[in-house]
Amino acid sequence: AARAFPSPQLVAFGTFIAFAASRSDGAYAALAAMETAIPALFLLLYLLKLHTKIKCVLWPVADVFNSLISALFLFTVCLFAIIFRDNNGTLAGGVLGLLLLVLCVADGVALCKKISFQGPRGRTPEN
Predict the structure, then answer these.
(1) Residue 107 belongs to what domain range?
(2) Of these four, 48, 55, 57, 92, which has the most CB atoms within 10 Å of its CB?
(3) In this structure, which long-range contacts are made by residues 14-18, counting pairs with CB atoms below 8 Å and at least 24 apart in sequence?
(4) Each residue's pLDDT tens digit in the chain (127 positions)?
(5) Closest-CA residue to 32 (of 18, 44, 46)
(6) Structural domain tally of the chain?
(7) pTM of the model as a whole
């Protein structure tokens, strides 16, 4: 199924590129880089099925927590980037960051709706 909105990874990378190219404050680019790297690590965790091997962590809850904390940081930093814009690159990064904020909130809400605490976690052993 095709997505109705852009991939958060692509928007995060675009935000990073805009902040890095504008030579703005390093905190802007650092946050955008973290927003590119951390979801990539979650994706790698799920692709390699490591979440079934490390059972001491509720990975969907950690993913929701990451999305909501990211949204909080993005709101603060991108608002400052837009208000105190040094150049057009900083403004573009701030706007892309606010789009990423909306995508993070949507991701967190979608994950919250999917989380179920009933039933077994991971793969059940077969007889």
Answers:
(1) 26-118
(2) 92
(3) 14/96, 15/93, 15/96, 15/97, 15/100, 16/93, 18/89, 18/90, 18/92, 18/93, 18/96
(4) 444 455 777 888 888 888 888 887 777 888 888 888 888 888 888 888 877 887 787 777 888 888 888 889 889 888 888 888 778 878 888 888 888 888 888 888 888 887 766 655 555 555 4
(5) 18
(6) 1
(7) 0.74
